[in-house]
Specification:
Number of helices: 23
Strand order of the largest sheet: 13-12-14-15-16-21-22-23
Largest sheet: 8 strands, mixed
CATH architecture of the largest domain: Up-down Bundle
Mean pLDDT: 84
CATH class of the largest domain: Mainly Alpha
CATH topology of the largest domain: Rhopdopsin 7-helix transmembrane proteins
Length: 859
């Protein structure tokens, strides 16, 4: 941008002539002005477009031509005039001092803003007869409406310490006191609005949004902050497009194409009014609908947008804006605006012609080509447009407060209430003619007053007011007119968790629906699933993966699954941890019932055999079988069958100690009885051989041997129980989805010692029985003992690997099976042949038959 403005040239003349300051070019004149003892400036975008010719660099550039009157901005300018007139009539504030103004048009252009800045600083005098005093034409400036133009204005006036109070410039960059030491504003900074918008998007669960911004300081800075905070809140931006009011139609159409092709259903529009107008025109042309608009304060309460045509696009829009207010008397003041107030003012004539669509009869030339004429007697009260609409006095109220802030600062300065001023400034504090702008600047920083409406006006150290917003929702009334309904509040002065509050008012969304739209890249993951990021896609785009077994997610959109505690497992939906199923061999299940039946069957058969032996106790076969040892063996076998029942059911401290010790002792007793019978048989037959000196195994000796062999096992079991007894144990490592309730051996040495001792007895029995298998007898018991011990050993040899490899309750089942199988083997092999002869072959149950072979051999 080339430098275009007003330059002061001080030419020092020789021969004692005084220095004279003269202006180069033509001065810039205000559109609206009034003389007074103290002048304040105003800069508004009264026109929204500018016709700019490219300079030829061969001639003086033409003056800027501003077009397209902005009625809303014109209302801002008139509000400033109203506030000044009100102050002039107030005898309490600035008494006996007339307040004047100079209002310039920046035309929404930084170039025009520079021209306005120079005019506000220098004034309109062509020459200065005396030495340049350095005094500025105005003591303070109200404006501007856009951040970029305000930045230009503030940079130009900053070195002169002229306070600039903006009513609508929200760029957070303007809070930098080093760059803008004399800037103030009555509208909150975008630092807060951007954060409020990010919280709004997050509050409604929109994690996938599009964004469009003004390609200027306002839009770029505001959108940068919004994107930063939104991404921190877990919101992803699908696209972020910039648009300028000076863009070609092709560039604007390209931006709309991006919006149209996007999958995001929510569009955050951080746009100034000029860019919003351009975008909406193209949006309507391409018939883009179905978007939920989220707007910035620049356009969200712009009444001129709330037409039936535009509401089809923006209906249901939400956005933050400052609180509205009422300004008593403003409506009447606006309705009195008339070209007759200043017939030579081109702006008033343009306003009148545009408002009534006519051509003033006194106008020789007009930029409007209207056929009908008007004379200025028309009544504005019959007109409804952006100028006469005072139902939403938000930005106008900011202008009103800005003027009063300047008035209070001037009042305090003249009353010598300034602080932190230099000595020279204090010397002039009571004289309005000697007052300089730096004094007003200091007073403005400390100003603190309450408006008639109850609003308190003050500025923080950065020149910003307290950030308070209303959440506005575009809703249609029964007549089809769009109203701006407050549905929430944002107050930056409160703790972070209390800043954003929703009212109990239903929000109308896009398409006049009461159902909140959804805008996500991926549908939310339900409990039981976790989010899995898709490669080369934003974090908001993800897949929902089922949590692995043993892990859960109990919230929506969980980023990871939670592992269940050791004794818990995931339910079927993987949404909560439930206690693992406890597994043990119970009496209720089929396997438990079957094993119990076999155990009781074994006991019953053993009792039946005992009854048979008891009934035939005097027969030769029973006597030859050593009846006492037989009954003791049958008793031990009954205990073996019964001890298997201790392995069934929930393990307890007592059952764990009982099952292993009972098993060890009963089988030791059983093997001791078999061993004693085997020794007795061998010694009996050896003793009958002629010339043999082997003594017979007497009954007391058999009893002692059985007792001693069993006692040794009892001692082993007692030591086991004393040193490290078996205890109930929850095995959670063998199976991931269940708890195996089992008996921990306590001491593995004790367990294997018990088994080893039983094995030792059984091997000893087998060896002796094997040696006596060919003894001469019609009923060779040693042969049957050999078979029974062989089965016993085979069962327990196969038990060991099966016991080690069997999982859970099957380990117990294998042990019970081994007990039952070995018990049945002993019972059937030893007693079945005897019962067969006793019951079915009584003719063989004689002494002669039993001893037959012996006699035959001896002959």
């Amino acid at each position: 941008m080339f430098v275009f403005g007003l330059l002061l040239l001080c030419s020092i003349q020789t021969k004692g002539e005084k220095a004279t300051c003269s202006i180069i070019g033509q001065p810039e004149y205000p559109l609206l002005s009034k003389d007074g003892e103290i002048i304040i400036g105003g800069a508004f975008s009264i026109h929204s477009k500018i016709n700019l010719e490219i300079p030829s660099f061969t001639e003086i550039p033409h003056r800027l031509l501003c077009t397209s009157l902005n009625l809303r901005e014109f209302r801002f300018a008139q509000t400033m005039i109203f506030a000044i007139e009100e102050i002039n009539s107030n005898q309490m504030l600035l008494p006996n001092i007339s307040f004047g103004y100079q209002i310039f048009d920046s035309c929404g252009s930084t170039l025009a803003s520079m021209r306005s800045s120079m005019a506000l600083i220098n004034g309109q005098e062509l020459t200065a007869e005396h030495t340049c005093s350095g005094k500025t034409a105005v003591k303070a400036i109200i404006g501007e409406s856009e951040s970029s133009s305000t930045i230009v204005l503030s940079r130009a006036t900053g070195p002169f310490k002229i306070p600039v109070i903006s009513h609508f410039a929200t760029c957070a960059c303007l809070s930098n006191r080093k760059q803008f030491p004399s800037f103030f504003r009555t509208i909150p900074s975008d630092y807060y609005q951007s954060r409020a918008l990010a919280q709004l998007v997050k509050h409604f669960g929109w994690t996938w949004v599009g964004a469009v911004r003004s390609d200027n300081d306002y839009g770029n800075n505001g959108m940068t902050t919004f994107v930063e905070i939104a991404e921190r809140e877990g919101v992803c931006i699908e696209y972020s497009e910039a648009i300028s009011r000076t863009n070609s139609k092709e560039k604007t159409a390209r931006v709309v194409e991006v919006i149209k092709k996007g999958s995001a259903k929510v569009l955050v529009a951080f746009l100034a009014q000029g860019e919003m107008d351009v975008l909406l025109e193209e949006i309507i042309r391409q018939n883009v609908t179905g978007l939920q608009w989220v707007g910035s304060e620049s356009w969200i309460t712009a009444r001129y947008l709330a037409t039936e045509r535009i509401s089809k696009v923006l209906g249901g829009a939400v956005g933050f804006t400052i609180s509205k207010s009422k300004i008593p008397g403003l409506k009447e003041f606006l309705l009195k605006v008339n070209p007759s107030q200043n017939p030579s003012n081109a702006l008033l004539r343009e306003f009148w012609e545009m408002t009534f669509g006519c051509r003033l009869s006194s106008t020789t030339s007009s930029q409007f080509e209207y056929e009908k004429f008007c004379d200025g007697s028309e009544n504005l009260s019959n007109v409804s447009n952006a100028f006469t609409d005072v139902s939403e006095l938000r930005i106008s109220n900011n202008v009103y407060k800005a003027v009063y802030a300047v008035a209070y600062a001037l009042h305090n300065t003249i009353a010598c209430k300034t602080s932190n001023s230099s000595y020279s400034e204090k010397m002039t504090c009571g004289d309005k003619d000697l007052m300089v702008s730096s004094q007003v600047l200091h007073s403005l920083q400390n100003v603190n007053f309450t408006m008639a409406s109850g609003q308190t006006v003050y500025f923080d150290k950065n020149g910003d007011p307290m950030a308070r917003y209303e959440l506005i929702n575009w809703q249609k009334n029964r007549a089809g007119e769009t109203n701006f309904i407050t549905v929430g509040h944002y107050d930056a002065s409160l703790p972070s968790e209390q800043q954003f509050v929703m009212n109990s008012i239903n929000i109308v969304w896009e398409g006049d629906s009461y159902t909140k739209p959804s805008s996500v890249c991926s549908e939310r993951c339900q409990p039981g699933f976790r989010q899995a990021v898709i490669k080369r896609r934003p974090v908001c785009c993800f897949e929902c993966l089922r949590c692995p077994s043993g892990e859960i997610s109990n919230t929506n959109d969980s980023s990871e699954c939670i592992k269940c505690p050791l004794e818990y497992w995931s339910n079927e939906n993987h949404s909560m941890c439930v206690l693992k199923n406890v597994e043990f061999l119970s009496f209720e299940e089929n396997m438990g019932v079957l094993l119990t039946a076999f155990s009781l069957t074994g006991v019953s058969i053993t009792i039946a055999v005992a009854l048979v032996f008891y009934n035939f106790i005097d027969t030769p076969l029973v006597k030859a079988s050593n009846g006492e040892l037989s009954f003791l063996l049958l008793f031990s076998l009954s205990l073996c069958f019964l001890c298997s029942l201790t392995f069934i059911g929930r393990p307890t401290e007592w059952s764990c100690m009982l099952r292993h010790t009972a098993f060890g002792i009963t089988f030791a007793l059983c093997m001791s009885c078999v061993l004693a019978r085997t020794i007795a048989v061998v010694m009996a037959f050896k003793a009958t051989v002629p010339g043999s000196s082997v003594p017979q195994c007497s009954l007391p000796l058999q009893r002692i041997s059985v007792f001693c062999c069993t006692l040794f096992q009892v001692i082993i079991c007692i030591m086991w129980l004393v040193l490290a007894p078996p205890m109930p144990f929850k095995n959670i490592t063998h199976s991931v989805d269940k708890i195996i309730l089992e008996c921990d051996l306590g001491s593995a040495i004790g367990f294997w010692a018990v088994l080893a001792y039983i094995g030792f007895l059984s091997v000893l029995c087998f060896i002796l029985a094997f040696l006596a298998r060919k003894l001469p007898d019609n009923f060779n018991e040693a042969k049957f003992i050999t078979f029974s011990i062989l089965i016993f050993c085979a069962v327990w040899i196969t038990f060991i690997p099966a016991y080690i490899s069997s999982p859970g309750k099957f380990t117990v089942a294998v042990e019970i099976f081994a007990i039952l199988a070995s018990s049945f083997g002993l019972l059937f092999c030893i007693f079945t042949p005897k019962c067969y002869i006793i019951l079915l072959k009584p003719d063989q149950n004689t002494r002669k038959h039993i001893m037959g072979k012996t006699h035959n051999k001896s002959q």
